[in-house]
Design goal:
The complex is a heterodimer of chains A (about 160) and B (about 200). Chain A is mostly helical. Chain A contains eight helices and no strands. In chain A, helix 6 packs across helix 8 and helix 7 packs across helix 8. The longest helix of chain A is centred in the middle third of the chain and has 22 residues. Chain B has two domains: about 80 residues, Double Stranded RNA Binding Domain (2-Layer Sandwich), CATH 3.30.160; about 80 residues, Arc Repressor Mutant, subunit A (Orthogonal Bundle). Chain B contains seven helices and six strands; from the N terminus they run H-E-E-E-H-E-H-H-E-H-H-E-H. In chain B, the strands form two sheets. In chain B, strands 3-2-1-4 form a four-stranded mixed sheet, with helices on both faces. Chain B has a two-stranded parallel ribbon with strand order 5-6. Chain B is elongated and about 75 Å long. Chain B starts with 15 loop residues before the first helix and ends in a 6-residue tail after the last helix. Classes of the chains: A mainly alpha (about 160), B alpha/beta (about 200). Chains A and B meet through helix 1, helix 2, helix 5 and helix 8 of A and helix 2 and strand 4 of B.
Amino acid sequence: MRLPPFQKLIDAYGRDVHRLLIALVGREDADDCYQETWLAALRAYPRLRDAGNLRSWVLTVAHRKAIDQLRARKRVPALVAELPEQVSAPSPELPDEGLWRQVRELPDKQRTALALRYVADASYTEISLVMQTSEEAARRSVHEGLKRLRMEYQP
Amino acid sequence: MTTLTKPADAPLPDLSTAAANAGLLDIAYTTYDSPAGKLLLAATPHGLVRLAYLDEPGQEDSVLDYLARRVSPRILASAPRLDEPRRELDEYFAGARQEFEVELDWQLTRGFGRRVLEATARIPFGARSTYKAVAAKAGSPRGSRAAGNALGANPIPIIVPCHRVLHTTGGLGGYTGGLDRKRLLLEIEQGQLTF
């Protein structure tokens, strides 16, 4: 099977992956997650059986790394609680950041589905591939996520 | 309801250093503008594996596709990992270097072809050899034509100096990057040209 040089994947999908991770885990952790995503993909790459849908494959790896990151964060709440609040000034808020912060509060499925849909411009088919669910469930997650945002988000 | 717009873009973090540290960078490459034209340099952890002249759009892709098939698809762009050969080439074109010291990875060559290229790599700066002589050094005195083919397929031109190999009659012969380049490199080595 012919796999393209790995750099081609980074050139084609690097921006989508980075944006997706900013949406899923926030700006502070996005760079680490980005690196972990591409290293995991690079490690697995020569053994890849299907070169047909590389974008969905890379987005799947990014999605898993984001989940790992969020779980790891939940495991260390005690440590976080002891830190003084906001030692350094927070980086200036970007206009769209507030809404993505709300998205990050949503359940895993809704958050991921919304980010894939609105950050990576994924089709429902692609969302279902990345999230390993049905297309119908992908559609439902997007709609439920949007509904919840509408109820909860007060600009 | 506000629509969900894409988060503002930030610079993409570099990956090649982390990949190399994790032992996952099988080939690093960069492109480079030299006095002999645009070049692609590619290195494995063992050394420089490919130097290619880039004359037409699409050539870069075909060189990288070939490397992906023949060596490994774990290929990343990384200029810093090719600093050493770039520096040596700069010095060579400036007339300040006669011998290349960068490590070479010969894995794109084999058999008689490799022996021809290894013999060619030993031709000193400023000297000339012939197809017949390098064929003989590679163990096949009557293999001039096969030697010519091996030199034409030289994966590391300039640094493996196939431009120093001429016809027995003194004719220029052929060159992988075109005869103008062969002339240019020979003139540089005669001290007639520096950049």
